[in-house]
Amino acid sequence: MTRLIPITGAYCVGNGQACAYLRDGNIRELFAPYYTMPPVLSLFRADQQSGDQVSTYRHENSGIFTTKIRRAALGMTELTDFTVPNSPVFVRRVVTQQPVTFELNSGFVCRCNTFGCREGVDGVTFSDVIFYLREGTPVHAYCNVDKAIYCRLILEDGVELTASEEKQTVTFPAGESRMLFVCGDAGRSELDSFYDLMETGSRLVSIPTSELLDEAWADWQAFFARIKDFSDLLKHHPQSAELTDAIQSVAVSLRSQTSREGGTLAGEKYHLAYGRDMYGVIRGYLALGLYREARQAIEFFIREFRKRGRMPNAVGMGCYGSHCWECDDVEQTGYYLLELSDYYQATGDTELLISSADYIRFLLNAQEKQLADGMLPFCGDETYIAGGLLPRACIFHGSMEATALYITGTERILALCKAMEILPSDELSEHHAVLEQCKQTYNSRFVKEGRILTNNPTRLAHAVLPRYIHGVCNGCYGFDYLRLTKEGGYLCMHCYSHRKVESTDREYSVDCATLMCGFVHSQFPPEDLVLRLVQKITDQKLEHPSEQNAVGYENGLLLYVLASKGIRNSLTERLLANLLATRTSGGVWSEYYRNGVVSEDSCPYRPWESAINLCGILKLLEAEKSGGA
C-alpha cells in the first residue's frame, strides 16, 4: 500500500456492482448487485462520543479507504473499506484495541444465522444476516426493483450479532475481524439470486482478508495505469500535490459510482443514471484519457434507447426502471448528441458512430418535434428548474440552453453523418433546414440589449402545450400525472378542482445556464457575450458567494470558459484556489453551495460537478503550459 491521503465528508466505495456511501466510519448506504437499488442497510457507530477523534484517508492511487477512530480511554479503531473486483461484494476490515459496536438499520432483514452457518464452511465459522427485497420494491419515485433480490451480511467468527424487535447491533471484538456484504446474481441464474448468493458467500469466507485486499489493490493499480499522464502539466506547479490529489479523487469518484452496465449514479440521493449528469461524467472520462469508460457510458444509453424506443430523463442500472419528467426529449438529448461527437473527436473511433444511426435519428427527431418558433422548452428536471432558480411556470418557455445544445450537437453530428455516410443525404438535408432556421433566429430570441436570456416566454404563443404531462404539480409540488389548466399551469388530479396557477412572462438570466454553453464550445449565445459575462461576474461571485443555493459546478464552468480562451490571471488563480478549497466531500465536490460552503440540503460526492470542475482545472493547466494571456 502507498501513502494515505486525508479526506473529509462523505465518499463512495464501489466497483459497479457493490456500492457503499460512507462518512466518518459510518456506512450510510450499502447496496448490491445493481446500482439502481434502494439502500439495503446502514451501519452507524452506536458508541459515538463527542470527544472521539475521527480521521479518514484514501489510499493513494486507489479507491480503498481507511478510517481511524481514537476513542477516549478505549484506544484506536481502524476500519478499511473496499470492494472485491468483478463481484457484488463489499468488505470491511476492522482492527480495534477495544470492541466497537455498530447499529444495523434495514427494512429488508429476512433471517439471521441461516442453515446453521455457525457449523462452518471448510472449517470457517461465522454468523450471517439475509436480506430480501421483493420485486417491485421502490427505488426512487416511480422506479422500482424489477427482480427479487437476496443479499447477505457475513460476520466473521467472534463478531457478535445481536437482534431484537427494537434494534440489531454488530460488535467487532478487540483484534482483527471483518464483515462481508455479498449479493447474488439477481436473476442471471434464471430463478433468483439465492443460489448464487450462498455459493459466493461460502467461497469468500475461506479467503483471507489480505488476499481480497491485494486483489482490490491490483485492480485499482490497473485502472490508474490507464489514466492520462499529467506530469508535464503539473511539473513545477506550486500546487502540484493538491492538484494531483484532485485528479485522482475525481477519477475514483467517477469509477466508484459507475455501474457495470455503464451508467453512473448521480450521487448518494439519486440511484439512477441521469442523461445530463452523464454528459459531465463522459467529459470527465475523456479528459482523464479513460476512453473505454466513456464509450461504455455512451453505449449504456444506446442500449437503453433500443430497449424503450425513447429516452426517459433517468434510467435504471441493472433494472428496467426509469424516472420521467416534463419534456424529457429536450436538453439531455442535446447532450447525447454532443457526447457522441466529443468521443469521436477524442478517439477517432468511427465504429461507434456508424453503428448508432438509429440512436442519432431518434435524438434529432425527438428535439425537432419540440421546436416552436425556433426554440426548445426546458426539461422539468433541468438544474435551474429542479433547483428552484427558475419557477416551474417557465418549463414551456423557450430555453436558451436547450436550444443551444440542440444547435451545437446537431451541427456537429450532421457533419459527421455526412462524412461517414451514416444517414442518407435527403434526410440530412431535412435536418439541416430545421437547424439553419434555429441558428438564424437564436440571437433574436435569447439576446436582448446585450443581456443573455435564459428563458423566452414568447414560445408559448407558438407551442401547442400537451394536455397531460408527468412531472411536478404547480399546486402541491407533488410528483404525479398533471393536467393543463385554463391559466396555463399544470395541476395533479388532487389539486385540479380547487387550485389556480398563474403563468409568468418574466424573463430570467441565470449565469450557469450561459456558462454551460461555453463549456460545450457553442457559438450560441455569441462567444464574446459569454466571455464578457464571465469576466464581469467572476470577481463578484468569489467576493460575495450566493446566500441561496449555488450550483457546485459554476466556478468550474467559469474557469473552463476563461482558460479555453487562453486566459490565466488573478481571476483564474482565485477560481482555482476556490475549487481546491471546496473539495469537502471525499476530495471532490457537492451539488449545492451556500455562502461559499456546502449547502445542508446538498447531495455530496457528486460525479457531475466533480467532472466539470476537473475539466476546468485541466483546461487552466493546459493554458498555463501553452503560455496563455
The share of residues in helices is 25-40%
Number of helices: 17
CATH class of the domain at 4-196: Mainly Beta
Number of strands: 31
**Overall 3D shape:** globular
Major sheet: order of its strands? 1-6-7-8-9-18-15-12-11
CATH topology of the domain at 4-196: Beta-galactosidase, Chain A, domain 5
Unreliable runs: none
Q: Determine the CATH superfamily of the domain at 4-196.
A: putative glycoside hydrolase family protein from bacillus halodurans
Largest sheet: number of strands, sense, barrel closure:
9 strands, antiparallel
Strand-residue fraction? 15-25%
Average pLDDT metric: 94
Distance between the termini: 42 Å
Radius of gyration: 25 Å
Structural class: alpha+beta
What's the quaternary structure here? single chain
The CATH architecture category of the domain at 4-196 equals Distorted Sandwich
